[in-house]
Amino acid sequence: MKHADCRVHANRVLSNLVWSNDPLIVRAVTNLFRLLRDEVELDQSMRLLILRLTNNRLAVLEAAEDLLDILTSVTAQEPKLLAQISNALLRFGGNEIKRYAWSTVPENLTSIALTLHRQEKFRAAGLKLFESLIEMNLSQAKSALDVLDRNPVVRAAPYRPTRLRKRRAVIRK
User: Fold this and answer.
1) 60 membership: H or E segment, kind and range
2) 28-77, pLDDT tens digit by residue?
3) What domain of life is recorded for the organism (predicted)?
4) CA atoms of 26 and 56, how far apart (whole Å)
């Protein structure tokens, strides 16, 4: 059996296990993201595992930090997947996001929100996520908002003062 085949079968088994309500099973599945942090290959079977994970509250809360650390860098390539992960995290872990133990989660969510907002198709999802982060009073979102307020996306043309025209002397004879 080839390595790729083993991965597909393993992800299929993990996808079925992630539905469990047993905390030990969920922790075993979500530890996969911690162990493979630098080596996650985002193929179809891994996407399926992540999508199934977003429907289990316990799994979302357990894997949030590792999952966002891994996937924030691919937001531009996988906007739909990251939007679903972010929405699941807001739905299941609204109060958890503010915890000190999740120090990287608000920063990653803010980055995801801004990246989604820059894409035409996901602009509304990014804006909704960013507004949710602002409503939660997260300092990372407020800092990003301050930067955006100081540096508008559309810059106005610089003011160019009108040049005074020199009067021409008219000589009449």
Assistant:
1) helix 57-71
2) 888 888 888 777 778 888 888 888 889 999 998 888 888 888 888 888 88
3) Bacteria
4) 9
Contacts of 19 (CB under 8 A, 6+ apart): 52, 55, 56
- The residue assigned the tokens 């972010």 is 86
DSSP code, position 94 = T
Encoding tokens for residue 96? Answer: 């958890």
User: Are residues 173 and 153 in contact, defined by beta-carbon separation less than 8 angstroms?
Assistant: no
Provide mean pLDDT across the span 8-15: 80
pTM over 0.85: no
The alpha carbon torsion through 93, 104, 113, 28 (nearest 10 deg) reads: -50
* Phi-psi region at 47: left, alpha or beta (left = phi > 0; alpha = psi -120 to 50): alpha
Residue with tokens 């540096």: 151
| For residue 118, pLDDT beyond 80 | yes
What is the pLDDT at residue 163?
Answer: 56
1: confidence class by pLDDT, cuts 50, 70, 90:
low
Q: What is the mean pLDDT of residues 137-147?
A: 66
Tell me the C-alpha distance between 105 and 67, whole Å: 10
